[in-house]
Amino acid sequence: MLTSIPDEAANLPDHPEQIFHGTPVSRGIAFGPVQVIARGFSAPDVRPIQADQIGGEKERFEKAIAITQRQLAGLQDRIGDIAGAEEGLVFEAHSMVLDDPSLLKRVKESIETRKQNAEYCFYAVMQTFLEAMRRVSDPYLRERTIDIEDVCERVLRNFDTNKPAEETYGTDSPHLLVTYDLTPSDTASMDREKLLGFVTEAGSVNSHTAILARALGIPAIVSLGGAILDTTTLAPAILDGYTGKFIVYPSPETTRYYENLAKKRRLAREALESLRDQESTTRDGRHITLSANIEFTHELDLVNENRAEGVGLFRTEFFLLESSTPPTEPEQTEIYRELAKGTKGHLGIIRTLDSGGDKLATEELMEPEPNPFLGWRGIRVSLDRQNFFKEQLRAILRASADGKLGMMFPFISGLTEVYRCKELVHECMEELTAAGESYDPDLQIGAMIEIPSAALIADEIAKEVDFLSIGTNDLIQYTVAVDRINHRVAKHYRASHPSVIRLIKMTCDAAKRADIWTGVCGEMATDLTLTPLLVGLGVDELSVGPHELAPVRKALLSLDYAECRKLAKTALTLPTSREVYDISRAAAEAAYGDLFEDVIGG
Ligand code: PEP
Ligand code: MG
Asked: What is the pLDDT of residue 168?
């Protein structure tokens, strides 16, 4: 069903079906009206109009332009008086943008053809123009976009809004968002009821934005070039998060096809969910702990509904950094208590702050970092800001009195960092003891293995901790030197790269020798083509987004550990990613081919 496209919005002229292709990053099929939000300045709400309102809308547009021209002339005079005529000229340049007859003509034509309110048509025409400018190689022209954005904002403010109350459709109505890019915190703060799916021009599968979309179950496509320029707000559309197709003005046949497909996938999911009470144990009896990755404690309901055996990764950077004032130590303690109680006796692993990279920075930096992923990130920040770090450590420790908690440190590159983290944990324990506060003195402490230097000395690290958790998202990027958020090089990002699997094997073997366990909490754990390989390499735990628990459980139930061991042994002798991928995929298809067909879509 096309969701909530208002009847009057369907008065857009008849359009042939348009099909765009991007990279699918979060599975699901979503139907809805498009909202295009471009860069630079915010979109006004859009409102469909009737033919007899076209004249009035054109007048509103002319009025807004005339008011803006007067304001700019006034500003030119004022600044000219204060700072000299030359400084005032900048406003003359702004005003010239609005004198351009072709611009005025295009907006008026747009009001006629789109039959939408004047401010939205102005916004759409200007954004198309600005997007074209942002894509030119001339830096002078690119910089001028800021001036034009400024003028546009001003024009939008000058539209008279004294209109009879007619319904408008903004991002507070259900929609499919089409935008240039989203930050992880944009994605995290979106209203799941209203955001049916999103398409971005930038972005890549392994960015935190994509990870969050999967965690929140929002169908999404990234790297869809031209999406902003070529789609129209309020156009009906279908987003296919399985194949990366974005279909605008779908024909009735296409709509029927997707309605059937969505139903089939929903039924297959429901069938999978009926397995949720089964232990995640292979056919020949090897139990793999199946736990969940979460970013917010409200996800715990979903985690429990899907019977995860605890939380393998609680990313804390989103709630610690999303507001301008981070939560206080007591507030943090409360959040970790929710986790301690919410995992119902299972282990909940809190990862200490992992800021930087593509996530929010702990603090505003004086200069942008040239290579943020190689910069001030993860444990480096925590060890440089020990007061802040110790607040988090004490909060985790205090909460550990209320349930089974563990903690792990991100972005460990060497042993010294592990020693220092442990020293700080012990200092915090002593402080709590001195204050008469209780905590679990045996809480498990782990290190993330997500930098090759750590994997290569996993033997040493394993002696110091209670578990190792492999962060494959980063381990892959640092091993094959592929920026995980740069879509230009995305095709080189290979989870099945022989070097990556050797590092995973080294990590698992080191953990076994030290008699501790190894988990995988990166997205590779959700890739069903590679489950046979990971199981065979010897991982003890897979931690995946709450929506991925059901298919991964089914995969584990269908596999045979002894066969996976053999497969991994062969894989470790293969020279290319393709060969490794192919043998794992063949084993996966043999064991649970129906999942590829019905649930993950190919
Ligand atoms: C990882 O790198 O695999 C990981 C789990 O951490 P993040 O994605 O938050 O960097
Ligand atoms: Mg990481």
From this structure: 60
